[in-house]
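Follow-up to my post from last week.
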Amino acid sequence: MKRVAILMGSESDRAVMEAAIPYLEHFQVPYEVHVMSAHRTPDRVIQFATTARDQGFRILIAGAGMAAHLAGALKAHSSLPVIGVPLPGGVADGLDALLSTVQMPKGVPVATMSVGKAGAINAAVLAVEILSLEDDTLQERLEDFRRKGAKL
Amino acid sequence: MKRVAILMGSESDRAVMEAAIPYLEHFQVPYEVHVMSAHRTPDRVIQFATTARDQGFRILIAGAGMAAHLAGALKAHSSLPVIGVPLPGGVADGLDALLSTVQMPKGVPVATMSVGKAGAINAAVLAVEILSLEDDTLQERLEDFRRKGAKL
Amino acid sequence: MKRVAILMGSESDRAVMEAAIPYLEHFQVPYEVHVMSAHRTPDRVIQFATTARDQGFRILIAGAGMAAHLAGALKAHSSLPVIGVPLPGGVADGLDALLSTVQMPKGVPVATMSVGKAGAINAAVLAVEILSLEDDTLQERLEDFRRKGAKL
Amino acid sequence: MKRVAILMGSESDRAVMEAAIPYLEHFQVPYEVHVMSAHRTPDRVIQFATTARDQGFRILIAGAGMAAHLAGALKAHSSLPVIGVPLPGGVADGLDALLSTVQMPKGVPVATMSVGKAGAINAAVLAVEILSLEDDTLQERLEDFRRKGAKL
Amino acid sequence: MKRVAILMGSESDRAVMEAAIPYLEHFQVPYEVHVMSAHRTPDRVIQFATTARDQGFRILIAGAGMAAHLAGALKAHSSLPVIGVPLPGGVADGLDALLSTVQMPKGVPVATMSVGKAGAINAAVLAVEILSLEDDTLQERLEDFRRKGAKL
Amino acid sequence: MKRVAILMGSESDRAVMEAAIPYLEHFQVPYEVHVMSAHRTPDRVIQFATTARDQGFRILIAGAGMAAHLAGALKAHSSLPVIGVPLPGGVADGLDALLSTVQMPKGVPVATMSVGKAGAINAAVLAVEILSLEDDTLQERLEDFRRKGAKL
Amino acid sequence: MKRVAILMGSESDRAVMEAAIPYLEHFQVPYEVHVMSAHRTPDRVIQFATTARDQGFRILIAGAGMAAHLAGALKAHSSLPVIGVPLPGGVADGLDALLSTVQMPKGVPVATMSVGKAGAINAAVLAVEILSLEDDTLQERLEDFRRKGAKL
Amino acid sequence: MKRVAILMGSESDRAVMEAAIPYLEHFQVPYEVHVMSAHRTPDRVIQFATTARDQGFRILIAGAGMAAHLAGALKAHSSLPVIGVPLPGGVADGLDALLSTVQMPKGVPVATMSVGKAGAINAAVLAVEILSLEDDTLQERLEDFRRKGAKL
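User reply:
Got it. Predicted complex:
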């Protein structure tokens, strides 16, 4: 059963965000990948966010650049933990997306990662850390991963 | 009949955003003021944006700080011109909100003003400029305002 | 009859600013393109700005980099809505031009877009949104464009 | 039984970090607060991090300013989810601490919040969201909190 | 006969820009002070710039904040040396005005000083240095000023 | 007789700084070019600065990157007008050199240009503007240059 | 006997950090190079730092990028002088690592160099300067190096 | 016999730089404090730097703001280790002075501390660390200081 959703605002974000996949597969965590835009296809975002928990998802990972509203839009419509991955491409080359992603109002947090591929990878690892809190098998894989230098 | 809506994410933004009001009143442009949050009360934002044109609004002015998603959320749900006013308060003291507001994806523009009260005032003046394109009385008031130094 | 003017400070800005053209043509909005510099050919700028409304223009789109005074110079001499597109090339690679463009004094607004081609495209879409306020055909094209994902 | 640890580098950080407490208490999540420095008392940090899971902790929240190494030092020694809260006070007034906190190497994520009190509050809410994944009572409280505007 | 003009965009800039005056008076260089805005009263700026040399001026000092177009607008209309003093007040607290002032196109330089009062003072000293190139009395005063630590 | 010195901290700056030369030659202003470093060969800098006026120089143009002390070191030892050209190459890619160059203490100004080649060119044009104050032939060439669009 | 240790967080930092080696060899200062990560292999860092003085080391040079905790982690566990070299690669391309490296708490300094290869070279020269305080032969080599322009 | 010199560009820097004194006195390291400016009194700086080693100094600590050339000017004229303390006050409130101080050319390092009082304190502690390399009594005091939390 799928546990983690990887979402992104545009097809052009796919190469960066899919850096998360080998990590999820290493830990054998089932996932789905979807493209949807907070500004161009807002109804899809709302639909996904409001049904995600019932579909079995436990963690939503969202990557977006520039105004970078996707993670926040998901958080507005879901109480699941949302992990935000800022993407480069704006005038401040990712620092803008970082500030848009991390500076959420009180009460509606987005767990923010660093910009780009390293952020996508760490979003996967954080998702594993969260899921491992109640999953001893996953926790063993995590400790093993860390003992080997936290690399695949 | 109301033409301009002034929207803001939080009651604490009111003092800044209401700097627009004397300008709208000087030009005799009817307006409404509402508080609604893209993250805390997203359903109100969607409801407002999707019905705004039918309610008679022609221009939406939105002020928000930090992640500053309000203007973008309105634009996602309305084809009316949206004017964004970035507000100070984030770690980069308004520059963050400016970048969140202005860096919209292609096809969904937000007309962005400067940060804070000067931005709220100029949002009002831009709204008047837009409405005056088809309103000779308003255009005369605008030319008169400019002849006198563009000040109240 | 022409409605939108696309202005830029230098021939080297043309490739970026002309990204607006397919959008204006998609919406069948007539336009003109001119090169003029606020610092090298200031008299041409004043001449254009002061006669633009009588020539039939409704919206002025101005792209400039570095000190980026062109949009502001047009606004100083015209009451038409001015949309500013900051261009990269300065020491802060467009952030400088963004701040020069957006931070206008009270009473003389420039509707600012994001830096570069995305900004030029959104300037065109904002111009269409403004013109569609009193043009039902244009508004239908706009709603259709948005339903299809706000892309050409 | 305690579930969340709130850690900070210096007594002077306490006023900011304790903004998290009313939120943890609202959700009835047991917590502890400790002061320890990655640079002045590194042995205490290592001792705490390596024993935290066995002590019953599920989430570590760490606040630090300037070089802001505390969250990263905890992450180096624990596989529990670590939430980092950047604090103001450095030359870039929190942006420096944000970049030090969020830019972790691949494989060792820190879930980063915004700078200062809003970040401390959101660290608490994120901790609740994580714990609620396997706790229906907590999830009900969370949905209730969100229905009421995500405020205390 | 007046040699130096001190110009500023708004009455609110006067306190900063008048820091230049004691230095001009120390060196016995005649000056005038005027307020005029590149955006609100552009015709006054053009009128002043195009007649400045014939009025006897040799150096134009211009202070402005935010978009900071005044120095550039003067330079567009005069071949006299223009010294720009960026003023604080924008979102980047003077760094924005500095970049707007200094980043002029090729061929139309503005000699830029640091932000605020120190910049106004140094504008006066630079004006003296320029005038002293052909004025031995002024040069003696300048050398004397420097021998005494370059302070009044 | 030489009037303008073009100085730079390193041979690697030569390609940028020599962009000034065609402009000085167009205006028939004699110049010299020298490489000397404020940190590696400080005695040469002091020797040059203290004798420059007696050698006939009227304007010193100095280009430097990173800490960018050359213009300031010359100003410390000469009362001639010093024009500073910040060069790219530091961590902030020229913005650092700009701030090092422009932020001189009160009483010891450096007339600062924009970063890189455009700054070197404008340093030459500013030098011409200064020299033309007492040279009618040069002033005629300057007006002619401006009438033709301020370009070579 | 080895005197200087060059440490770095990752193999990918080696090309930059080894720019220090020709300088140490020119001055005939014995050194070692090691890769160890404050986050992935923290126990190695602690082991190295706590035994470095007894192994004969006098200066520790540490290069790291992004969160850049390595120099600080060494300083937490050793009273030897630690020289930090910030490396590019983060969202602010080295400025982030610079701020993480330099902004240490009171009492635990890291002597910070500029970003990248120039910083690695200067770390070597600073190490030589420190060691030469009690080594006349080394001091003579240093004075000779400086007389020849401070270059190899 | 004096070992450490604390130098600063202006009397107004004294309050910040003297934060170093209690630390030097705690470790019983003799010091002197002098005010001298790289730009206003350059001859005093050269005189001090060229004679410092023969006067018995082993470490030069220099604090300066804005263009912040003092540490670099000392380094240009002395082979002793120079520690730079950037001071706030410029347009980037110390970040500018940090970049001016740290970005020295290859071969002429300045050991840079953080901005302001914390930097002045850490300059003193680094000086002690360097002097303790050949002074067992001082090293014992240093270890004792660190065992007690690296605080006075």
